Amino acid sequence: MVAGQNVQTDVPAPADAPLRARASVFTDEISMDFADACRTAAGAGLQYVDVRKVWGVFSHEVPRPRWGEMATILADNGLRVGVVQSNFGKCPISGPEYDAHIRFFPVLVEQAQYFGTDTMRVFPFWNETKMTYDSPPEGGIRPNLEGMLAEIVRRFRPAAELAQGAEVRLGFEPEHSTYSGSPQEVARIVAAIDSPNVGVAWDVSNGWDDATIEDAYTLFRDRVVNVHVKERDRSPEERRALNASGVPPRNRPTLLGVGALPWAHIISLLEWDGYRGVYSIETHFGSRGRYGWPKLKAATTYYMFTLRELLEEAEETSPLFDQVTRTQTGA
């Protein structure tokens, strides 16, 4: 198979799959070796994987002749790409790096179409005004956003228009280093761009210090195109209590299901309102240390099985989810 002929697969699009099947994982949270990552994901019972870095480079940097190799690996493992987790927009809002991002964005759109996904994670450019966890700005919006909003919209417009024409959905992730640092900022930027194909890649942990889960979801309702699954050891309230006592807290990642995030509740919120995308594992454990990659693979494997349990339990305990599943499977 060569690039230019879109991948054919028996794995349904996430929108046509039951909840229990919609776990996905960033392959580079397992291994930079795409074949190894896909074997591991399939071995954990997944049908979907997300691409960010493959063979040590961002997915848009993978030469087109190797796209066919990726497609063969996916097919051999019964997998489909859930989301292209791009780094588009993690750059200054103007200048040579911005120009480079605009040039490679069409490659990302082509890649999404080739691998049969309609969803891509993006960012709305670096914000030099930093946001901190323990002293978030009033209303969750940094003072410089409003003055920059028109320029953000103008600079992002080429990507939004190309994606809309290609029927690819773009999701901004809450990311403190960019203009979409909080749920409030994400919502403000999405509203200003005002495109049906631009929504939210909801990293619940990233936005939790700036808005409660319920408040963030109220801002995002009906605009969530992807959900990032990671876990942390403390809630915002626990972090702030430690900080007030003089103990500098850190947001430390931990294993899914043993931390502070109420994932069963989050899944129910999303599914009741019609979310039908994948739940994408991004552990943030990192690969540091002598045994960094083996530790990361082990942690991510634990995540995959735990996420499957969460999705299966949610489906089994909700009549609505059970009805959706029976409709989709023809049971």
Supply the key terms.
12% strand; 8-stranded parallel β-sheet; two-stranded antiparallel ribbon; 331 residues; TIM Barrel; alpha/beta; single chain
Largest sheet: 8 strands, parallel
What is the rounded Rg? 19 Å
How many beta-strand runs? 10
Q: What's the CATH H-level homologous superfamily?
A: Divalent-metal-dependent TIM barrel enzymes
The secondary-structure element order is EHEEEHEHEHEHEHHEHHEHH
CATH fold assignment? TIM Barrel
Provide the CATH architecture: Alpha-Beta Barrel
Number of helices: 11
How large is the share of residues in beta strands? 5-15%
Taking all residues together, what is the mean pLDDT? 93
* Structural class category: alpha/beta
* Low-confidence regions: none
* Cross-sheet strand order for the largest sheet: 1-10-9-8-7-6-5-2
Provide the domain count: 1
Helix share of residues?
A: 40-55%
- Cα separation of the termini: 34 Å
CATH class: Alpha Beta
Which word captures the global form? globular
Question: Would you kindly provide a written description of the structure presented here, covering whatever features stand out?
Answer:
Strand 7, helix 5 (183-193) and strand 8 form a beta-alpha-beta unit. This protein is of the alpha/beta class and 331 residues long. Helix 3 (96-115) runs parallel beside helix 4 (145-166), helix 4 crosses helix 5 and helix 9 (263-272) crosses helix 10. Helix content is 44%, strand content 12%. It has a single domain (14-329), classed as Divalent-metal-dependent TIM barrel enzymes (TIM Barrel, Alpha-Beta Barrel). It has helices at 34-43, 64-76, 96-115, 145-166, 183-193, 204-207, 213-220, 236-244, 263-272, 292-317, 319-329, and strands at residues 23-25, 48-51, 53-54, 57-58, 80-85, 119-122, 169-172, 198-203, 224-229, 279-281. The chain has an 8-stranded parallel β-sheet with strand order 1-10-9-8-7-6-5-2. A two-stranded antiparallel ribbon has the order 3-4.
